[in-house]
Specification:
By secondary structure, this protein is an alpha+beta fold. Helix content is 24%, strand content 20%.
Length: 452
């Protein structure tokens, strides 16, 4: 049965208005759609090489990420991951963590479908002691069971819990695996020894777009409409959602681009392009210049205050980044002269002996090749240099450390400090896990990356 032309879109709207709303909805929706793409590959699509486990079952990865891991842009390679896709529609989940040895960092990052970091468990947030935590969906109104240390509430019906367990050195991997084996996930009924509630009806999950398709395909809005079915309207967004509805962006509605007139089709596609142009301008003017950093782009809804461009930029440049209290990511997209990084040149990062990145846990420097923002495969299988490696790094005469970022190997006596980069465009970022106050209040600033 064919739909009438333009039935999606409020007939009172002019194409220019459709274009403006589409651009606004694209910026708003990009983190949701990209997050859904990853969650689908991890917890729905069993044929996907990145598939981890069914919903509500924990998957442990007893290794660090490599260039073969392609679902998430800008992964770290310091902390073996565990992943939990939480479907909270039927009942809450109880997440149990074991006691973790002092001196080892670990964290559970709770991320809703919007990509808000709505809570944490781990070394910084709750300490390294064992405990049981109750993760509930937006509609849950039950009593807190005995033995639960904290109730953690998700704004959306599906959520992602991202576990990080620090690897101290390559020989430490078995210790990490033992800790991972102690992470437990149970439904609340299982935890209480009670009958399970009725299961939710089987869900026909919409097919996600590829990262390339997300750049231009109008099917973006079809996926967004599906993902929004898990996202009750927040009171602060009532007017925004009503405006989106004027162009057919409504939870659960099919967004059939083919039913639109050529003029409105063009308006929708121009709106998507405008969203990307706005992102590029934001990156150029605010991110590349250092006016804004990861500390401004990741956190709770209350922290981000509905700044949708900051949220989009964070998803594009490093989805699932931590809130600033947990980690910050001082990035290098350009060198100290303002030139884009390219492996046809050579670079040096000087870490002064008394100005190492100030952390309670650890720091690292990781390289990502462009345009994919994935780890760079190299002859050393070295994707980062981090603070646990300090004893093996060459010191300068003044006690500082100079890290060398280049494509070809340096002199033999400097190879301990070599971080290989691709022969073309790349970027690199520091990671400061559990940063100290001076890293957050501006007393410490990232050192310049100089072209040699």
């Amino acid at each position: 049965m064919s739909s009438p032309k333009n039935s999606l879109i409020d007939p009172s709207l002019k194409p220019a208005e459709v274009r403006a709303i589409a651009a606004e909805a694209f910026v708003y929706g990009f983190p949701i759609v990209d997050n859904y793409r990853i969650l689908h590959s991890y917890f729905v699509d069993r044929q996907n090489p990145d598939y981890k486990a069914p919903w509500n079952q924990l998957n442990n990865v007893g290794r660090v990420f490599t260039p073969e891991d392609k679902a998430i842009q800008t992964p770290n390679s310091d902390t073996p991951y565990s992943q939990l896709g939480a479907d909270l529609r039927a009942e809450p989940l109880v997440l149990s963590v074991p006691e973790v040895d002092e001196g080892r960092y670990y964290s559970l990052q709770f991320i809703d479908l919007y990509t808000f970091n709505f809570d944490y468990v781990g070394s910084r947030a709750t300490g390294n002691g064992a405990g049981d935590y109750l993760l509930v969906g937006p509609g849950w109104q039950g009593d807190t069971p005995a033995g639960i240390r904290k109730v953690i509430r998700s704004e959306t019906e599906i959520a992602f819990v991202f576990y990080r367990t620090q690897l101290l050195n390559p020989g430490d991997i078995e210790n990490v695996r033992k800790i991972q084996a102690g992470y437990k996930v149970r439904t609340l009924s299982e935890y209480l020894g009670q009958p399970a509630p009725a299961a939710v009806p089987a869900t026909d999950f919409a097919s996600p777009l590829s990262p390339e398709e997300q750049r231009s395909s109008p099917d973006f809005f079809h996926v967004l409409n599906f993902a929004l079915t898990f996202c009750p309207t927040h009171p602060s967004e009532t007017d925004l959602r009503a405006r989106f509805a004027k162009i057919g962006i409504r939870p659960g509605q099919a967004f059939d681009f083919s039913t639109l007139s050529p003029e409105l089709q063009q308006a929708v596609q121009d709106g998507i392009a405008d969203g990307w142009k706005a992102f590029e301008a934001h990156k150029r003017d605010n991110v590349d210049t250092g006016k804004l950093s990861s500390a401004d782009g990741f956190g709770t809804r209350e922290f981000l205050r509905n700044n949708y461009m900051n949220r989009m930029a964070s998803a594009v440049l490093g989805i699932y980044g931590n809130s600033k209290e947990e980690a910050i990511y001082p990035a290098y997209f350009v060198d100290s002269a303002g030139e884009a990084l390219d492996g046809r040149a050579r670079y040096a990062l000087k870490l002064e002996a008394d100005k190492l990145p100030p952390v309670n846990a650890f720091w690292s420097l990781t390289v990502y090749q462009l345009p994919e923002s994935l780890l760079y495969a190299n002859e050393l299988d070295r994707y980062l240099i981090n603070s646990p490696m300090l004893p093996g790094l060459k010191r300068d005469a003044d006690g500082g450390i100079t890290l060398l970022l280049q494509n070809e190997a340096p002199e033999a006596d400097s190879q301990s400090n070599w971080l290989p980069v691709p022969a073309g465009p790349f970027w690199t970022t520091l990671r400061l896990y559990w940063p100290k106050a001076e890293a957050l209040d501006g007393r410490w600033t990232q050192p310049p990356l100089k072209r040699l």
